[in-house]
């Protein structure tokens, strides 16, 4: 029986192997046809579209704006409390570094407010935080630094939130220095 397997199986295996080689050679043989043209890669967008919900019309970037009233100043009233030594601000304030005769819109395109930190909420900390930063020619926030804060627990969330903001690219291609924003953290019942 073993001899029969060797006599029939070995020639059959050789025949199958040789036929597979001829089949593969026929598949890879060049038939003189041009290779198919490459297809363009599909454009995949993984970021969501930014939708503005402000009902007021906004002028295009770089267009001159009409003269507006000056921004409100910080009030010098102290909040009640034994060791409260900071100013109550009206909210976000942006300093326009453009020359006085030429006003342009420089507000952030992407503006994510900082969350109220749970560690501050648990201690009952509240107040206004003022942060200063620069804007690169591409519109990225660089060098954020907190100027005043009622409690250290507000510093990290404010820096992290402001670092994620995106401004329109500068028209002249330069840096914008000393942009100041204020955030008010108040506990509600």
Task: Explain what the structure shows.
The chain has 189 residues and is of the alpha+beta class. It has helices at residues 2-28, 118-123, 155-163; strands at residues 127-135, 141-148, 176-185. β1 and β2 (141-148) form a beta hairpin. It starts with a helix and ends with a strand.
Alpha-beta content class: alpha+beta
Rg over C-alpha atoms, rounded to the nearest angstrom: 34 Å
Unreliably modeled segments: 75-103
Per the principal axes of the C-alpha atoms, what is the gross shape? elongated
Mean pLDDT: 76
> How many individual helices?
3
Helix content: 10-25%
Strand order of the largest sheet: 2-1-3
Largest beta-sheet characterization:
3 strands, antiparallel
- Topology, number of strands: 3
Q: Would you list the SSEs in sequence order as H and E?
A: HHEEHE
Strand content: 5-15%
Intertermini distance:
94 Å
SSE layout and pairing:
Layout: H1 2-28, H2 118-123, E1 127-135, E2 141-148, H3 155-163, E3 176-185
Antiparallel strand pairs: 1-2, 1-3
Task: Give a quick rundown of the structure.
The protein is of the alpha+beta class and 189 residues long.
């Amino acid at each position: 029986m073993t001899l029969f397997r060797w006599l029939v199986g070995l020639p059959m295996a050789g025949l199958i192997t040789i036929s597979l080689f001829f089949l593969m050679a026929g598949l890879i043989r060049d038939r003189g046809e041009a290779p198919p043209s490459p297809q363009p890669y599909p454009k995949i967008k993984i970021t969501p579209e930014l939708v503005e919900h402000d009902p007021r019309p906004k002028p295009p970037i770089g267009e001159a704006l009409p003269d507006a009233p000056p921004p409100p100043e910080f009030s010098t009233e102290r909040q009640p409390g034994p060791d409260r030594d900071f100013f109550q601000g009206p909210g976000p304030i942006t300093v326009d570094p453009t020359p006085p005769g030429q006003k342009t819109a420089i507000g952030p395109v992407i503006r994510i407010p900082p969350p109220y930190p749970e560690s501050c909420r648990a201690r009952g900390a509240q107040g206004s935080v003022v942060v200063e930063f620069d804007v690169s020619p591409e519109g990225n926030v660089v060098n954020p630094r907190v100027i005043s804060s009622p409690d250290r627990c507000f510093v990290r969330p404010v820096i992290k939130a402001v670092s994620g903001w995106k401004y329109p690219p500068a028209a002249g291609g330069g840096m914008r220095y000393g942009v100041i924003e204020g955030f008010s953290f108040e506990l509600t019942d």
